[in-house]
Amino acid sequence: MHHFISFEGGDGCGKSTQLQQTAAWLRQQGQQVLETKQPGGTGLGLEIRRLLLSGEFPPVSECELFMFLADRAQHVKEVIQPALKQGQWVLCDRYSDSTLAYQLAARGLDCGVNLRPMLAFAEMGCVPKQTFWLDVSIETALLRIKKRQQKGEKNNHFDDETMTFHQRVHQAFESIYIENTTRVVRLDASQPIEVIQQQIRQSIIC
């Protein structure tokens, strides 16, 4: 049995914090845990992440999709598959659901072309057993992004997108949840951090 969990949601939802706290809790239970993220979970992935998020050379939407898929293929083969074979828990900050939400839905690449087989090809059979979707209103998320900016954190390429773009992302995550209720656990991310963490611990499938 593999323990592959992804954490998903729009920008500013708090998924990275919840992933770190979940990993710490699992380690307290004596589990071996790998924390990783997409894009950027490998050396090559870090370069792809820098190119994607810096805005220095903005890719067209089609190119952006291929860059995310390239990162995923490298990440799966180099990091995720070996960790799962060793019996580790793998906790991943974003995975294919983000590609569905951001590139296929929000960028409008899923119109008239079935690109999902490409996503499956990049996954190479590695599908999360469980996904935690941290659902928060776009208004709250944008406020959090603004607070991060005030603390000196630089906005990335996706933070600067329009409200309409973020609405399409949110609608896409909602559709993914409806289609995958056995895999995706929806969490109200407007709750206090400790409340959300408790819900995750109660929901994790061991």
- H/E series, N to C? EHEHHEHHEHHEH
Mass-distribution shape: globular
What share of the residues does DSSP label as strand, in percent?
5-15%
Structural class: alpha/beta
Largest sheet: 5 strands, parallel
Rg is 16 Å
- Helix count, DSSP H or I runs of 4 or more residues: 8
Q: What's the total number of strands?
A: 5
User: What number is the mean pLDDT?
Assistant: 91
Distance between the termini: 9 Å
Uncertain segments: none
Q: What helical percentage do the residues reach?
A: 40-55%
Strand order of the largest sheet: 2-3-1-4-5
Question: What would you note in describing this structure?
Answer:
This protein has 206 residues and is of the alpha/beta class. The protein is built from 8 helices and 5 strands. The protein has helices at 15-28, 43-54, 61-85, 96-106, 116-123, 138-150, 163-179, 193-203; strands at residues 3-8, 33-37, 89-93, 130-135, 184-188. A 5-stranded parallel beta sheet has the order 2-3-1-4-5, sandwiched between helices. Helix 3 runs antiparallel to helix 4 and helix 3 packs parallel to helix 5 (116-123). The model has no long low-confidence stretch (mean pLDDT 91).
